[in-house]
From TrEMBL:
Positions with a binding annotation for IMP: 12-15, 37-40, 127, 141, 237, 304
UniProt remark on cofactor binding: Binds 1 Mg(2+) ion per subunit.
Subunit structure: Homodimer.
Binding site for substrate: 300-306
Cofactor(s) the protein needs: Mg(2+)
Originating species: Ruminococcus hominis
Annotated catalysed reactions: IMP + L-aspartate + GTP = N(6)-(1,2-dicarboxyethyl)-AMP + GDP + phosphate + 2 H(+)
InterPro entries (alphabetical): Adenylosuccinate_synth_dom1, Adenylosuccinate_synth_dom2, Adenylosuccinate_synth_dom3, Adenylosuccinate_synthetase, P-loop_NTPase
Function: Plays an important role in the de novo pathway of purine nucleotide biosynthesis. Catalyzes the first committed step in the biosynthesis of AMP from IMP.
Protein name per the record: Adenylosuccinate synthetase
EC number assigned by the record: 6.3.4.4
Length: 426
């Protein structure tokens, strides 16, 4: 059976923990899109980890971790991560890398940084991981596929062609040092040495695994609102963040995805620029940021303070719909235990009218939040294992949000650890 774990919002929803938890029953875990530009924070018996490319199931010795063809493969980052988990006592993970994945080159990161510098105040808030230039090259058909590392004649011709093309921009737009084809070839040879033992025909491997009845988990990066088609364009990422893309980014038939676990936070947070209707500021935001996540709401990749907000039912309902949620995992609920009252955004006022449907970006920029204030529960809920043992106001908060978004909340996370989870029988 194939399941997907994806985000309903701007990313940072707590997917890493849910993937790590579901990894216990999984044979294979697949990263199907994105790159090292966003991280998943995981707390387990080995310690606390921020993963960027490795699938979040690497901590189990019975799983195979796969980098799918849809991933922006930063080979040095991947192997640095493998080393970092092994150094903390984690058994060496079983890794497979798709022969059809494409490679993030050092110049992609340079172009990312140069473009943010050029845009200055109008930048996209990039993590400068090379993601937008990488995907631009992939779709312009000038990227390097892992399989091409094994065709020397092709590489020697291609590095010259790529350097010529890139150097026009470097010289005339960015006024930066030019690329040397020999340096590009040597970079690719280094990458070949690192990745060669792991290269696999992943779609065939997964085809056979499905036939054998293996449990496969697809792990998404970021969330619905960062999708380039259905998100807050242009303040989005460069690959599809939707579960539907899991089929493409892993190389399996779409009808094989039977369960889509869509992760929502019990409040909102976001890294990067873009419309964020329920955003809060000042002391109120600082307090929630300080208490949030599993040690504060700061980006796992950048360390940047996350933007904070109250739960947004409009965005989350839309995010769950776009993912095709069969289940909602509701995370970091324990964080809200300090509040007397909890505002929830239930609508957007746009040009004097209230809507509960998520609009396109130019209207989103004009939206003002419509709040309903719910009573808090004012107690620590960590350690509770049964839904009925949660405080009444806590249950009412969950049930109110479930009714607003229209998708079943079947998992409630009440702490950062792997076992801090309450299952609801819906």
């Amino acid at each position: 059976m194939v399941k997907a774990v994806v985000g309903a919002n701007w990313g940072d929803e707590g997917k890493g923990k849910i993937t790590d938890m579901l990894g216990k029953e999984s044979d294979i875990i697949v990263r199907f899109q994105g790159g090292a530009n966003a991280g998943h924070t995981i707390v387990n018996d080995y310690g606390k980890f921020a993963l960027h490319t490795l699938p979040s199931g690497v901590f189990y010795d019975h799983t195979t971790s796969i980098i799918g063809n849809g991933v922006a493969l930063d080979i040095p980052k991947l192997f640095g991560e493998i080393q970092s988990v092994i150094e903390k006592g984690v058994p060496a993970p079983k890794i497979l890398v798709s022969d059809r994945a494409q490679i993030v080159m050092s110049y992609h990161k340079l172009f990312d940084a140069y473009e943010e510098e050029r845009l200055a105040g109008k930048s996209f808030g990039s993590t400068k991981s090379g993601i937008a230039p990488f995907y631009s090259d992939k779709y312009a058909k000038i990227g390097f596929q892992v399989s091409e590392l094994f065709d020397d004649d092709l590489l020697k011709e291609k590095v010259v062609r790529i350097a010529e093309q890139k150097n026009v921009l470097l010289e005339h737009l960015y006024h930066k040092p030019l690329l040397n084809p020999d340096d590009l070839y040597n970079e690719l040879m280094e990458y070949k040495k690192m990745v060669e033992p792991y290269v696999c025909n992943v779609s065939l491997f997964l085809h056979n695994a499905i036939k054998e009845g293996k449990n496969i988990l697809l792990e998404g990066q970021l969330g619905s609102l960062k999708d380039p088609d259905h998100g807050i364009y242009p303040m989005v990422t460069s690959s599809s963040t939707l579960a539907a893309y899991g089929a493409i980014g892993a190389g399996i038939p779409p009808y094989e995805i039977k369960q889509i676990i869509t992760v929502c936070k019990a409040y909102s947070s976001a890294v990067g620029a873009g419309a964020f209707v329920s955003e809060i500021f000042g002391d109120e935001a600082d307090e929630l940021r300080k208490r949030g996540g599993d040690g504060g709401e700061f980006g796992a990749t950048t360390g940047r303070p996350r933007r904070m907000g109250w739960f947004d039912c409009v965005a989350s309902k839309y995010g769950c719909r776009m993912q095709g949620a069969t289940d909602v995992a509701f995370t970091v609920l324990d964080v809200l235990g300090y509040l007397e009252e909890i505002p929830v955004c239930v609508g957007y006022e746009i040009n004097g009218e209230v809507t509960t449907e998520f609009p396109v970006t130019h209207l989103l920029e004009k939206a003002k939040p419509v709040y309903k204030v719910l009573p808090g529960w004012k107690e620590d809920i960590r350690g509770i294992k049964k839904y009925e043992d949660l405080p009444e106001n806590c249950r009412k908060y969950i049930e109110f949000i479930e009714e607003q978004i229209g998708y079943p909340i079947t998992m409630v996370s009440n702490g950062p650890g792997r076992d801090d989870i309450i299952y609801r029988n819906k």
